[in-house]
């Protein structure tokens, strides 16, 4: 099945490539606003923990939060971006994006509205399937109905983000999570006394609307501008050519000239053979959270909350490690589209090495200082010392899978940069998800939340191994043995850094948690660098690779 948009040919300038230095400046803006969004997200979690602690109410809200978590993965971060950025880039390469918008946006909005209404009606069934045995199912249903609005708003926000990035407008898309978290925090502060945890769910709905509003003015301007003059374009797996570039731009364009040549109407196609694998991979990756909450629902109240807080904090190093890969995604795509597999290999190997170094350093810090981190961030109000101890223990288990999480995020980009259908990532993710479910089912009874965290780490690590082994034959010819040897040295360095951080906390037994966590910020990186040099892992060349 395809979406077909007829485009009347009209002469106009092609969409020019960005000037020198533009990508670096855009990356700096994106990184800065991403950090700001992450900080506000952490503040949001602190406010929720302070008001509601880790109990039946917070568990009910977190079950409802499954909806925006899944919607963000599919509609903003992974699937929508991997599909629509190339689509808009290809349309602009031929002169115009208005016909693509007219042909896709109304249908997408209608589909999202239907999906929103369907989940609104099916909220009780969804809660029962996601978390059977939940302590407060009625509250979870109410919160789910409030968060369901994000299906529509996140879908529209993801569409606008893809269009703006293709037009080289990076500021509004980078600000969406700032707007989202501001909406949640503001609603929480205003309504928590009256609505309880429902105020958090209402804040999610408000934040989703702000994600659209923060981008809408820029989207309207670019659609009205003269840069959107249209020419014929047919979107099929192929090449997209810009002046001065051999083929491909902005994440693996898939455009060719219309079959009828100049003067005839062309077509824009979004083939399901390319769409379905991307969407299924994104859904399967987020399904790990669904599996986790399914098994945790039968545990004592608070278990889902402990898992959530542990995961959110532990994954911060993973998010930081993937910033470089996000910025270089267009570079890899352009190299593959132009047939330069050697350039793509070099870039991907550097990206993987950098991602591993960042995430292993973060893992060492998290494992060494988990109680101090959780106490500093969350132990206040309704979140007590028992919640801190449980969350820290779970977080240490989660951290064992951070390397796998980072590798999956880094490896999936070169797979889909090739601009052709590929089902291997879906199969790899399905294998990891199956292992997660098996381990969770076997370990939840004897080990509780710790067993669930272990299942998550085991499943995502298996997916990472499969993706790495399959990359040379299916996308980019990376040197797997050399990469494995280099990463193994950094793993040894991370183990040494973890020991140094643990010793630091033991040397400060009566110190405030914040002071001990700050001290580890010094000792862990220093120990990591020294150990890496001792085992022969390159350290000085890392800034050059970045």
From TrEMBL:
Ranges for the region named Disordered are 243-262
MF annotations from Gene Ontology: lipid-linked peptidoglycan transporter activity
Domain of life (superkingdom): Bacteria
Q: Name one Pfam family in it.
A: MurJ
**What is its subcellular localisation?**
Cell membrane
On whether Transferase is a keyword of this UniProt record, the answer is no
State the UniProt keywords alphabetically: Cell membrane, Cell shape, Membrane, Peptidoglycan synthesis, Transmembrane, Transmembrane helix
Q: Which residues cross the membrane?
A: 22-43, 108-127, 139-162, 174-193, 199-220, 352-373, 393-412, 424-443, 449-468, 480-502, 514-537
Instruction: Give a GO biological-process term.
Output: lipid translocation
Report the main location listed first in the record. Answer: membrane
Listed GO CC annotations: plasma membrane
The membrane-topology field of this record reads: Multi-pass membrane protein
Question: Mind telling me which InterPro entries this protein's record contains?
Answer: Lipid_II_flippase_MurJ/MviN, MurJ
What's the name of the protein? Answer: Putative peptidoglycan lipid II flippase
Native organism is Actinacidiphila paucisporea
């Amino acid at each position: 099945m395809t979406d077909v948009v007829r485009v009347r040919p009209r002469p106009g300038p092609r969409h020019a490539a960005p000037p020198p230095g533009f990508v670096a400046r855009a990356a700096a803006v994106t990184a800065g606003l991403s950090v700001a969004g992450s900080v506000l997200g952490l503040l949001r979690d602190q406010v929720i923990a302070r008001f509601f602690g880790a109990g039946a109410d917070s568990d009910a809200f977190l079950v409802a939060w499954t909806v925006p978590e899944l919607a963000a993965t599919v509609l903003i971060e992974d699937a929508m971006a991997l599909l629509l950025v190339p689509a808009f880039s290809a349309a602009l390469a031929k002169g115009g994006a208005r016909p693509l918008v007219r042909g896709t946006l109304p249908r997408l909005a209608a589909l999202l509205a239907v999906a929103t209404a369907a989940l609104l009606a099916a909220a009780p069934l969804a809660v029962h399937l996601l978390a059977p045995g939940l302590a407060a199912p009625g509250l979870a249903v109410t919160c789910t109905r409030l968060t369901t609005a994000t299906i529509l708003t996140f879908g529209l926000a993801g569409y606008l983000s893809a269009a703006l990035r293709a037009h080289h407008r990076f500021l509004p898309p980078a600000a969406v999570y700032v707007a989202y978290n501001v909406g949640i925090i503001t609603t929480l502060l205003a309504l928590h006394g009256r609505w309880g945890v429902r105020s958090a769910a209402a804040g999610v709905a408000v934040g989703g609307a702000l994600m659209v509003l923060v981008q809408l003015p820029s989207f309207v301007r670019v659609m009205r501008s003269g840069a959107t003059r249209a020419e014929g374009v047919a979107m099929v797996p192929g090449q997209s050519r810009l002046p001065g570039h051999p083929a491909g731009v902005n994440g693996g364009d898939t455009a060719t000239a219309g079959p009828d040549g100049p003067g005839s109407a062309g077509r824009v196609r979004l083939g399901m053979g390319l769409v379905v694998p991307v969407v299924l991979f994104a859904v399967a990756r987020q399904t790990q959270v669904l599996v986790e909450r399914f098994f945790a629902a039968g545990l004592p109240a608070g278990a889902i909350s402990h898992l959530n807080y542990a995961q959110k904090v532990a994954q911060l190093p993973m998010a930081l490690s993937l910033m470089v890969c996000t910025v270089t995604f267009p570079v890899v795509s352009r190299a593959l589209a132009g047939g330069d597999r050697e350039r793509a290999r070099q870039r991907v190997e550097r990206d993987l090495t950098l991602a591993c170094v960042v995430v292993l350093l973060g893992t060492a810090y998290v494992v060494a200082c988990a109680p101090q981190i959780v106490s500093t961030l969350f132990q206040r109000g309704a979140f007590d010392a028992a919640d801190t101890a449980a969350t820290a223990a779970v977080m240490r288990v989660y951290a064992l899978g951070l390397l796998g999480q980072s590798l999956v995020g880094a490896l999936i980009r070169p797979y889909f940069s090739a601009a052709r259908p590929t089902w291997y990532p879906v199969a790899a993710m399905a294998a990891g998800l199956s292992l997660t479910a098996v381990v969770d089912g076997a370990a939840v009874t004897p080990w509780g939340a710790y067993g669930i965290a272990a299942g998550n780490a085991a499943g995502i690590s298996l997916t990472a191994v499969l993706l790495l082994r399959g990359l040379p034959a299916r996308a980019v010819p990376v040197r797997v043995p050399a990469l494995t040897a280099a990463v193994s040295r950094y793993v040894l360095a991370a183990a040494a850094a973890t020991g140094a951080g643990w010793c630091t906390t033991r040397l400060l037994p009566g110190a405030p948690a914040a002071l001990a966590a700050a001290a580890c910020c010094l000792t862990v990186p220093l120990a990591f660098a020294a150990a890496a040099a001792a085992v022969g892992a390159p350290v000085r060349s890392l800034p050059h690779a970045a």
